[in-house]
Each structure stands twice: as structure tokens, then as C-alpha cells.
Amino acid sequence: MKRVFTRSESVGMTRDEGPLQCFRCDLGFWDACYTTKTNCNIGEKCYTGRGKAGDVLEVKLLGCVKAKECELVTNVELFSNTTIYMMTRHCCNTHFCNTGHTLPLNTLLSLSLTTITIIHLSSP
After folding, report:
1. What is the pLDDT of residues 86-95, one digit of tens each?
2. The pTM is what?
3. Rounded Cα gap, residues 10 and 6, in angstroms
4. HEC states along the chain?
5. pLDDT digit string (tens) for 35-62?
6. Helix/strand/coil (H, E, C) string of 23-36?
7. 82 vs 40: CA distance, rounded Å
8. What are phi and psi of 28, to 5 degrees?
9. Burial class (CB in 10 A: 0-12, 13-18, 19+), 49
10. Of 42, 43, 101, 36, nearest to 68 (Cα)?
């Protein structure tokens, strides 16, 4: 019996394999993140990004990133070219390997608003 190889099999992927599925969190504080699920593009890995703003506020991001961006330290700018914190992305390459704790959206929004208020009140 003659076997016909599909394109995905010829590049080392089986029919059931595909892009990674990861958790996504656009902005979290400490270990509090409102997470959703996302599909990465081919060649991307799941990551957990951690940074610290003002030596007090721990920031966390989850998602997909190109493999060449793993383990790099990057500046994160939120407001008009002002560096808020440095971020390091730690990568992994299995489905949902960047697990994050989930919180209801209203809890995360309250925590975010409180943190931003404290930062603004404490600045000179």
C-alpha cells in the first residue's frame, strides 16, 4: 500500500499538531491576572512576562511571543515614551504551560484602579 504524505507531515508535524494554545493576560498585578485563552502563530511560544514598576508594583503579562524574543529584557512604555517597567519574558512550549491565576474582571479592575490611585498619590 502506497502512503501519501501531507504537507504537515513532511515538515515534522502530525495532523493533530498545530500552533500552541496559551493563556493570555494583557496586564496583571502581582499574580492577579484576568486570563483568556489564545492560539499562537506557528513559531511562537507561550510566555509569562514579569516586571516591576517603581520597585513596588509587580506586573505580569501572559501570551504568545516569537521564540527569538524569549528571555530578553525589554522596556515597557505605557504613557508617551515613558518607561514604566522592565519586562522579562520566560517562555515554554507546551499547551497552556504559562498558567496564570484567574480573577473575576471586576476584582481585577478594582485592584488596578486602587494601584494606579496609590501611585499617583505617592508621587511628588
Report:
1. 888 999 999 9
2. 0.63
3. 6
4. CCCCCCHHHHCCCCCCCCCCEEEEEEEEECCEECCEEEECCCCEEEEEEEEEECCCEEEEEEEEEEHHHCCCEEEEEEECCEEEEEEEEEEECCCCCCCCCECCHHHHHHHHHHHHHHHHHHCC
5. 999 999 999 999 999 988 777 788 899 9
6. EEEEEEECCEECCE
7. 29
8. -130, 160
9. buried
10. 43
Distance of alpha carbon 76 from alpha carbon 87, whole angstroms: 7
Domain spans, the chain: 18-122
Strands 82-92 and 21-29: unpaired
- Higher local confidence (pLDDT), 29 or 122: 29
- Assigned CATH class of 18-122: mainly beta
For residue 19, give the amino acid letter. Answer: P
